[in-house]
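Hey, I'm writing a tutorial for new members on how sequence and structure tokens pair up, and I'd like a real worked example in the thread rather than a made-up one. If someone can provide the structure for the chain below, I'll link this post from the tutorial.
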Amino acid sequence: MDSKQVTETIAMIREENLDIRTITMGISLLDCIRGDFDATAQAVYDKIVTQAKDLVPVADQIEEEFGLPIVNKRVSVTPVALLAGGDTSYDFVKIAQAMDQAAKDLGIDLIGGYSALVQNGMTPADRALIASIPDALHQTERVCSSVNIGSTKSGMNMDAVKLMGEIVQQVATPKPQDAMKLVVFCNAVEDNPFMAGAFWGVSEGDVAINTGVSGPGVVQRAIAAIPDAPFEELCETVKKTAFKVSRMGQFVGKVAAERLNVPFNIVDLSLAPTPAPGDSVAEILETMGLSHVGSYGTTAALALLNDAVKKGGIMAAERVGGLSGAFIPVSEDANMIAAASAGQIGLEKLEAMTAVCSVGLDMVAVPGKTPATTIAGMIADEAAIGMINNKTTAVRVIPVPGKDVGDVVEFGGIFGRAPIMAVNDGDSSQFVNRGGHIPAPIHSFKN
């Protein structure tokens, strides 16, 4: 980089909250299957500790050497439902505990992959893994879980949707914070570095490094500098800014992979906010000219932002992957929290915004009394948007025991605080209880 680029980067770090949100090492656990859960759990622990032993020291070294904050060091692993082998006891919690212990011993912030892929049906192992999610998340601190219940190619597994509505309720009781570690997907991707949905797909290699960069403040400052510019100029400004931000992710990922002696895989172009002032995706939308996020025009503004970030970012990286779509988690975005608290944005608007981003109902707190079938209906709606539009969508909804609309739940740190949002009082139970499978859309047939 020339001196001007160095100066710009220093300013983005100091003044605009630019950081590497995560360096995530993906690790295949397929060679850990032993046919016995005790032996498999030990093999899982051993492989994670062996492969990721230098991840945190290398990330800390890069952070100190280049002055670029690296917020999280994470690991993603093969979907754990695939590790049962010949042991039909399906004691998956032992593997969750092994993953958690490995993460603690290495100083890893979060470890993802306590997952099942059931878009087309559920094996006995899948059912057992899903049933174990509440115990696994209650008994661990750093393990994250995800379940893929639909895809454009396969349609939507409504039996799994109904089941996940119940599981979300169980995970959130009695500790709603545990539900932050569970996400339900449609069209899940195999190289996502962001939690809680990260897992390491079976088509990936043995081990590799993925990075996720976050720069909402950088983008917001760039837009604020051109308050009356037409949309063409606005888009170009976002593209150029996204290029600079994504270049940092490419640079750090390559350096980390080289020092860890593993392949570098992808940069995820997602914009991820935090509750810190000046680090808000919602503020970007408001800087475009909206009085508050949730105003009419919000979905269009988000679509513009997402597309421009991808166009700029893809030119800065050798390979782009993950979700690469703006995140709008309510509890993790200061301006989103303010809008939700003021009643300026609700679940219906967040669902509409999902059509142009990856995770629309994200870190959304709802009354603890919300029926499991209603949560299942939310999951189905979000999955339908992904299935029909051939894109990734996801739900991370948190029913908070003992709380109702008007209350607030504090999660702390980068997870922020969430106002309890109003839920439509309609009854989804008859629809959800039909069971079976919603067929794939006609445009899925491309052979």
